[in-house]
Amino acid sequence: MHRSTQEISLAYLTKRLNSEKNRQFKLISKTLEKYITHQIEREDLPKLRLLLNHCEMFLSHPNLLTESERRSITSELGGIYLYLGNYEKAKQLLEGNLSKSNKSYHKTLSNARALAYLGNVYGDLGNYEKARNLLERCVNIYKQGFPENHAGIARALTYLGNVHRDLGNYEKAKDLLEQSYSIYKQRLPEHHSGNAWASACLGIINTILGNYKEASNLLEQSLSIYKKHLSKNNIGVAWVLAHLGDVYGQLGNYEKAKVLFEQSIGLYKEYFPEDHIKTGWALSALGEVYRSLGEYEKAKNVLEQSLQIYKKHLSENNIVEAGILVYLGAVYKDLGNYEKAKNLVEKSLVIYKKHFPEDHNEIAWALAHLGDIHRAMGEHDEAKLLLDKSILIYKKHFSENHTEVKWALGCLKNVYHEMGDHEKAKVLCK
Hints:
- The structure is a single chain.
- This protein is mainly alpha-helical.
- It has a domain at about 335-430: Tetratricopeptide repeat domain (Serine Threonine Protein Phosphatase 5, Tetratricopeptide repeat), CATH 1.25.40.
- It contains 21 helices and 2 strands.
- It has a two-stranded antiparallel ribbon with strand order 1-2.
- A hairpin with a 2-residue loop joins strand 1 and strand 2 (about 20-25).
- Helix 7 packs antiparallel against helix 8, helix 8 (about 150-165) packs antiparallel against helix 9 (about 170-185) and helix 14 runs parallel beside helix 16 (about 320-335).
């Protein structure tokens, strides 16, 4: 339509639909809000990109909207920016919207969704405590004002479970994710995107806990739903492929893991720019697989690329950067550059300790890598101290037959072997 035709139509409809007796704009606003919510839950990025302009244009006519309607659409616009990866814009809109809330608005569905989106923004940016506080507020709103099996509660519980996972509270995370998964299964048809998403999140926590068969089943189930009922190139497919690659990597099937990570990155690049933060995450996982396959130069290049992406999008010394520094340190150790390796892992530990308690699983992981670097440098006493500390922390989080515990024990076994204490090495080897 020509712009002049649009202007005439708008003037006519404004007069006809916005009278006191005929508040049709309320219905239009509600329909738009529901449609956005549906596309966000489907993670349909092409449609979300189209909706971006519609939402902003809709909000540019404040005289046609009540305050409540404007806030509802603004919250969903923040959700669109979140799923498109524009975290700063999402944060700006959502925080602005929530700061203007009055008492009557506190317990609305729209406010709960805004808190959920904002909590997810902070989680993706690595500020897990802030994310947890926001998501707990969101869950409380749902529990006070909505049925126990409301789909919004399921979604909020999944967000909160993911944050507890990142904080290292693995059993709490698993409990929340199982609650969410159960609600989705009861409430939604099997092929719904919510089931695919909840299944994958539950699979991820099972991967961390070493329940690889359960993790693989849940991730395969998620992948099947995404491919069969949504789209083979849905962004959810890219995400699940990467986490399924992680399972195969943990099980030592690095070739299979590599294929899955490369497929995932290819899909991410169809939806996002090459330097997008989600691509950065998949690249870091691929780098670790390359290292496990002995392709050290490839691993170094991919990990440095990932590190640059995160530095561009997140504040300096963020948690994700710390993880990539450990991966890079391990690669430099394998390349024989021990000083560089040590410096990188020590830097990662400084960052981790700013964000996590001393007994966090990620700190145990970094300590074990640092211990192995000291072993390679011939500094066996220092290596033993670091690895002993790492194993003690690991045993707080995992059972003794968890792969992370076994890996750290293997590193310690190598130390005793090189020190000539073959009996101790033999015991650890068993």
